[in-house]
Amino acid sequence: MLVVVLVALLLFGGDKLPEVIRSIARGKAYIQNASQEVKNQINRESGLGDAINDVRRTVEEASREASQDFDPTWETVVPTPEKPKEKETAPTPDADKEN
Questions:
Q1: Rounded CA gap, 65 and 27, in Å?
Q2: Cα-atom radius of gyration of the chain, to the nearest Å?
Q3: How many whole angstroms separate alpha carbon 91 and alpha carbon 51?
Q4: pLDDT at 87
Q5: Of 12, 21, 37, 69, which cross-links 16 as Cys (Cβ 3.0–4.6 Å)?
Q6: Per-residue tens of pLDDT for the chain, all 99 residues
Q7: Any idea where the domains of the chain sit in the sequence?
Q8: What's the chain look like in SS3?
Q9: pLDDT at position 18, please?
Q10: Roughly what angle, to the nearest 10 degrees, separates helices 48-69 and 17-46?
């Protein structure tokens, strides 16, 4: 960073350096504003902004519902009864002879 400042000081001189830095900052701000404006225009024209807002609202609503139903003590958890496992039957040798 110090090298960059020294090179800039040598190239532009001490009295011109603040003006050059201001110009660079203005250019950076202009580019950021222009890119934000393009993004906003694309979102408006494509309807993407509305879709993003809909998804955001849905996620927030689902999150709110999940946090309301959540019980960190696990006192309200009711275990579900396990289904009995069905026995698997092995094929009989007679079944192969029928085909």
A1: 46
A2: 34
A3: 55
A4: 66
A5: 12
A6: 789 888 888 888 888 888 888 999 999 999 999 999 998 888 788 777 778 888 999 999 988 888 777 767 766 666 667 766 666 666 666 655 555
A7: 15-69
A8: CHHHHHHHHHHHCCCCHHHHHHHHHHHHHHHHHHHHHHHHHHHHHHCHHHHHHHHHHHHHHHHHHHHHHCCCCCCCCCCCCCCCCCCCCCCCHHHHHHC
A9: 87
A10: 80
Residues in contact with 71: Cβ distance below 8 Å, sequence separation at least 6, in sequence order: 77
44, 52 contact by CB (below 8 A): no
CA distance 28 to 21: 11
- 8 Cβ neighbours under 8 A, 6+ residues apart: 17, 20
What is the residue whose two structure tokens read 């660079």? 24
Q: Do residues 49 and 43 touch, judged by C-beta distance below 8 A?
A: yes
